[in-house]
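call fold(seq) -> tokens
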Amino acid sequence: MPNCCVAVCENYNQKTKGSNVIYHSFPKHSTLRSKWIHACKREDKVNVENATVCSAHFLKDDYERDLKAELLNIPSKRRLKPDAVPSLNLAPLRSSDVPCTSEIVEKMHDRTIRYTQREDRKRALNRLSHLSPKKNKIDIGTETEPISEPSLEVKLAKKLDLANAKIDHLKREIFTLKRKNKLLHLALTEKNQKLKLLESKKHEEVNEKINNILKKIFTKTQIDCLITQKMKPHWTKEDIAKALTLRSLSKKCYMYMRKSLGIPFTCTFYFKEMGFFIFSLLSRSTA
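ret:
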């Protein structure tokens, strides 16, 4: 967890989380690194490999401009200039500086205590790693996050196993439901086919009953016209002969039955042809 190594500065990662404070590692150049160490004004030794300095100790001009972020109106990445040195909020803790107050001395003492505790914990963990497996189980009161990680991994592994078991159960249910759906679809198709057969049989039976009732009065062609409502059926010779007989007996009766009652008879086209045929026969006989 990064924390600022500047004397008296109390910023660390957990405290400044969510704020605009960021942490910078020490530069690799030896001269610039010495300037950073001097700016920290620490009485103890600074571990430059892991130590960091927070952005609260740098000026705005110490950062390079991110023109791309400014043009695109997005959050910019703050990068220090190659020669930037901490110059803000630095505590005067050296003998050559202004004498420090009691509050600054107390904060420096707390920092020293925290540093000592961290070093003791590191030494204890290093010693535990070289112990035998039986002695390694001894709890010395220095439990840290790495020691508690296995229990967390076990919990996560159990949750993962439960989730996988639920997924397998749901997959089996989906497979069963798909199979049922397929069987129901086949049964529905079979029922629809049976329904169509029943409807066709019913239609045939109704037509047969109608034919049996009407065939005593009407011809087959007339019955088809009444059922199917055909406008131009194919009239047989029998139909034409019956229509001619009725019309020869009474034209008014023929027209009444054809137009008012809607009984299908042959059209007048046949009568015109028949009249023309009779007229030609009579003209031949007189000649």
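The first helix runs from residue 30 to 40.
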